[in-house]
User: Fold this.
Amino acid sequence: MPPSTDLRRASGRLPRDKRLAALIRDQNAGNRRFAELWATGAVVAHREDHETIDHLPVAR
Assistant:
């Protein structure tokens, strides 16, 4: 899932977030692929992923 879909969803939830708006504006201006994806208007619900990491015991 492209990051543009997560950002579009976030911008809908946080329409007054100036830092988010600036990030989106900067990405549109400086990243052609992002701008293309943003222009589609796609919104996708992001599902959380969980990862379990087993650490080896630390010798003392």
Summary: The mean pLDDT is 84. The radius of gyration is 17 Å. Helices lie at 3-13, 18-30, 32-40.
